[in-house]
Amino acid sequence: GAVVSQHPSWVICKSGTSVKIECRSLDFQATTMFWYRQFPKQSLMLMATSNEGSKATYEQGVEKDKFLINHASLTLSTLTVTSAHPEDSSFYICSASGGSQYNEQFFGPGTRLTVL
Amino acid sequence: AQSVAQPEDQVNVAEGNPLTVKCTYSVSGNPYLFWYVQYPNRGLQFLLKYITGDNLVKGSYGFEAEFNKSQTSFHLKKPSALVSDSALYFCAVRVGGNTPLVFGKGTRLSVIA
Fold it and tell me: How far apart are the CA of B105 and the nearest CA of chain A, in angstroms?
């Protein structure tokens, strides 16, 4: 199956700093990437959908100025958590869709963000 | 709007016994249904999907699921559980195209030796 990577796998930062998370599709072109957030022992909540070359579409309640998403190429999307606060601590997971496996999303391994 | 229900937070089963993890869905249109498994601090691993065709879908690690349109269900099953199957299982649905998946809340499966 297709491979999606995320970097970093975990990050600890101070409150007020910004953190960038990368999501890459390694062996296929991802026309669409999705960003999810998962709180402990809870399900995945969709944050935003990004199509290559377009502005991301954010779900209701997700602050677009706080969670900046860029999908500049068919293999890379980035999520930047700006001015992070402890309540932003979470597990962030990206997924990618496109190419021959049109109906399937391939998930990255996730990034654990801890804001002190 | 699409939704997925996983009615059980936790399922416990003895090793070697059959297991079932339940999932029901609600969509407008034809559903594309998926099962994923998540191990601690890891991303999601794809198990199987139903798009069209045979209602019984076979997937990875001996898992299978049956699409039942009349009951709007897509229960995950395995004939003989392994301790290594212990994990968090998510059912998800989308309605085609590059639309995002909508996930159930997850069911924690514990297989006891």
Answer: 5
CA distances to A105, B22, B63 from B50, in Å: 13, 15, 13
Determine, for residues B104 and A43 on separate chains, whether the beta-carbon distance falls below 8 Å.
yes
Q: Any idea how long chain A is? A: 116
* Residue recorded with tokens 């079932």: B20
**Which residues on chain A are in Cβ contact (under 8 Å) with B100?**
34, 46, 49, 105
**Is the CB of residue B44 less than 8 Å away from at least one CB of chain A?**
yes
Instruction: Write out pLDDT tens, residues A29-76.
Output: 888 899 999 988 788 899 999 988 888 999 999 999 999 999 888 899
Ordered DSSP codes for B65-111: EEEETTTTEEEEEESS--GGG-EEEEEEEE-STTPPPEE---EEEEE
